[in-house]
Structure formats: C-alpha cells, structure tokens
Write a structure and sequence with these properties.
Blueprint lengths: L27 H8 L2 H9 L13 H14 L3 H8 L3 H6 L14 H28 L10 E10 L7 H18 L9 H16 L3 H25 L7 H12 L21 E3 L9 E11 L5 E7 L9 H12 L5 E4 L12 E4 L8 H9 L3 H10 L10 H59 L1
Parallel strand pairs: 1-5, 5-6
Antiparallel strand pairs: 1-3, 2-3, 3-4
Helix pairs in contact: 1-14, 3-14, 6-14, 7-8, 7-9, 7-10, 8-9, 9-10
C-alpha cells in the first residue's frame, strides 16, 4: 500500500481554523515537533509499505506522533485517539494543518503499526529521542559514555495466578472453543465448575486449606475430562493446538516447581509470563519479564532498555545492554556503575564499578557510585508515569516493544520539562517587565495625588 502524504495548502480554507493561528508557538510540544527528524522517520518506516497494494496507509508522521503521545501521556490506544480530537497541540505534533474533529485513525491501527515496525523500529524511536535530547541539551554528549545499569520487572497485565484460577480458566476457554468449532462435549462443567471454583476461593480465604485443595483437585479432574473429550471427538485438532498444549501443561504441572521441570504456566492467554522474585518485602513475586535498563549517570537519561526473557542472572545481561546502548547513542561506553547483582559480568569493553567496591576508588568514583542509586527513581517514574508498570501488549514481542517504547516516553517527558523551563524564564521576564511598568505608573500617580489635593 502507498502512503498518504501530509500536504499543507498555501490557500487558506475560510471554513476551517488553522492550527498555527490558535496555538502558542512557545508551547513545549510545538518546540518538540521542530526538533524531531520526521524525514528520518519517513525513510525508516516508509520502506515497510508497498505501493500499489491495498488502500493507502496513513502518513508516517501521524503514526509516529501518535506512538510518541501514547508514551508521553501514558494512555491507551482508545483514549489516545479520543483526546487527539480535543487537543490542538497533539494535532500539530502529528503534522496537521487544520483542526480536525474526527478520529485520526481506528485505535486498532496503533497495534498494527507496532507490529509492522517491530523491535527494530521501536529502537529507532528510542534512538530518535536520544538525538533530540542532545539537540535540546537535555543530555550532554559527554554524559553518554558514563552510565548506570540496573534490572527491574515489567509486570504483565494478568490476574494473580492460583491453581484453581488457571484450571477453571483453561476449562472455560476449551469449552468455549469447542462450542465454536461445533464439537459436542459430553459435559461442559459450566455450572458445577463455577461452584467448585467459588468454594475453593472461600475455603482458602477462611484458611481451610485442606478443603480448598480438595476443590482444586475437582477442578483438575474436570479439566482433564474436557481435554480428553475434545481429543476423542474433534475431527481437526489444529484450532485447539495452542490452547490444548497450554491446558495440558496447566493440568499436569506440580504445585511447586522443582529443578528440571518445565517452566510453569501462570496465565492461560500469556503462557510466556515468568515468575520473578526480586527480594522485595512488600511483593515477594512479580509476574512478567525482567528488563535491563541503561541510563546516563549525570542526567538519568535512558539510552538502553530491553526485555530479558528466561529470568537470566543480571551479570550475564550486562554486555547485551551495553551493546544496545552504544547502538542507540553511537558513543562507546567508558564507565559502568551497577549494583552487586552484576558480579561476574565478564565485560572487558568498559570499566565496570560494582556497588561496595573499595580498591582503586577515588573521590570522583565514589561520588558516581553513590549516583548509581539515581536509576531507582527512573524505574519508578517509568512505572508510574509510563507503561512499564503494567504491560498490555501481547506475547514476547509485546514485552520487548513495550519496554523500549516506555524508555522513549521517559526521555520525551524529560525533554518536554527542559523545553518548558527554557521558555518559562523568558515568559516570566516579559510578564515581570509589564508588571513593573504598570505598577510604576500607579506608584507615580499615588505620589502625585497628595500634591494635587494640596
């Protein structure tokens, strides 16, 4: 499909309002739009579209701008396109000439665009934010060689897993799919299954664990019967392949995983989810994927972020994180500051300082080791203000893209804060001058009033 182009007409439409006449050109989003290299985006993503096939695609600037706004404001795809029709600054960032009242795209096209650009496209967007950060002086070029590294958990949008939940959910989905495929099951267990599941939850809440285990055993029996019934009666098992495989793993997996066992399933619709224990007192286990984060030591600007599937040891992930950061910035990394979890990293391309090091530590190195803790609030901001705290994108590909785009969103929020601070003093100075002129006249009048009365 060919791409639509954003064309700004030289002739003014009398029946529509131009955005340039209703927006404040000192606004941070307006200044950000000037700094982004939209032509590079066109070159990078335009090659992913074929001409002469299908209907024309939407402009690249519109699609990339919507992805950036989604990460900046931490909104869903549906909320994004709805608010877009109300915000002239958002429309200006996406390259519109006139204010529009209709939705720019269908929300589902946001997902399709992310799938089209893939992980490489998301990394290009992250690299784009690094270039804008250097251009706006949000991050100094010299700071890109000294970085802090840490890992966190990107939680998946799943409910807290229990054996009863998983067994009941797998049975419900299998029965639903069998009905859709026209397979007549001997028994669906819809009524008794829901009753047993409710009893299991009530017994567990009352700390009557033996009774709760008995109800969970019944749910396991029901699931096994449905699986075998489908395998006997279905003429074509291909539509059931993925769900049957997941259901069998849930049916046979032990309550506690031992060494050598297959990875446990913690979600029916997201079987790739991992259980990660980070040693937190308030949250013993987190369900999602480990994420490696690389930030500059001075400005806490994110220069690398990637999902690390398989729950690897932190030290074994350091080289991959540094390689990605160097690809984003184009600057070789000279110093790395990490916590004790990165012992035994094996990295020789840069000097790695581990928290608690004593030998060879100068005052400057000691200050940078203390500065390493600054990566923790960055993780907190990316989770609270961005999409890193709860990932709604599907599969391992969704894990990787969400992590990278969350890093890009954090960088853009820092850039916007810098632009606001840059233009705010000028505006304050102008207002102050007007205030002094106004009150200067009033003060002169007050001094003249007594004299005039005399």
């Amino acid at each position: 499909m060919a791409l639509k182009e954003i064309k700004h007409d030289s002739e003014i439409d009398l029946f529509r309002m131009e955005l340039a006449s209703i927006i404040d050109h000192r606004h941070a989003l307006v200044q950000l739009a000037k700094q982004i290299d939209w032509q590079a985006c066109q070159t990078q993503f335009g090659a992913l579209y074929a001409s002469g096939v299908g209907r024309p695609g939407y402009p690249i600037r519109l699609m990339v701008g919507l992805q950036l706004l989604k990460q900046i404001c931490n909104v869903s795809d549906e909320e994004l396109v709805r608010v877009w029709t109300e915000n002239p600054y958002w429309q200006h960032l996406c390259g519109e000439q006139y204010f529009r009242h209709e939705l720019p795209i269908d929300p589902s096209l946001m997902t399709m665009f992310r799938k089209r650009i893939g992980v490489a496209g998301c990394e290009f967007i992250l690299g784009l934010t690094v270039k804008v950060g250097v251009a706006t002086k949000t991050v100094a070029p010299s700071s890109l060689a000294v970085v802090n590294v840490d890992t966190t958990v990107q939680e998946k949008a799943i409910t807290y897993p229990t054996d009863a939940k998983l067994l009941n959910k797998a049975r419900i989905l299998l029965v639903k799919l069998a009905k859709k495929q026209g397979v007549d099951l001997r028994q669906s267990y819809c009524r008794v299954g829901q009753s047993v599941f409710a009893k299991s939850a009530r017994y567990a809440h009352a700390r009557q664990y033996n009774r709760a285990k008995a109800q969970t055993k019944k749910l396991r029996t029901y699931l096994g019967r449905v699986i075998r019934d489908i395998e006997r009666k279905a003429n074509d098992l291909e539509p059931f392949k993925r769900l049957l495989e997941t259901a069998k793993r849930i049916h046979s997996q032990p309550r506690k995983r031992s060494e050598g066992d297959a990875p446990k399933v913690y979600s029916v619709h997201e079987p790739e989810v991992e259980c990660i224990a980070k040693g937190k007192v308030h949250k013993k286990y987190e369900f999602g994927v480990k994420v490696g984060l690389v930030t500059t030591s001075k400005e806490s600007f994110v220069v690398g972020c990637q999902a690390l599937h398989g729950n690897p040891y932190d030290g074994h992930t350091l080289q991959a994180c540094l390689d990605q950061a160097q690809a984003m910035t184009g600057v070789p990394i000279a110093e790395v500051y990490a916590d004790r979890g990165y012992k035994g990293h094996g990295v020789t391309s840069a000097k790695v300082w581990i928290a608690g090091a004593k030998r060879g530590v100068t005052e400057k190195i000691k200050a940078k080791l203390k500065r390493r803790n600054a990566i923790e609030p960055v993780i907190g901001h990316m989770k609270a203000d961005g999409h890193l705290g709860r990932n709604f994108l599907k599969g391992k590909l969704g894990d990787e893209m969400n992590a990278i785009l969350s890093a890009a969103g954090h960088n853009l929020r820092k850039i916007l804060n810098k632009l606001r601070l840059f233009y705010a003093p000028q505006l304050w100075l102008l207002e102050r001058m007007l205030e002094l002129m106004l009150f200067g006249v009033i003060g002169a009048k007050r001094q003249l009033l007594p004299a005039l009365k005399m």
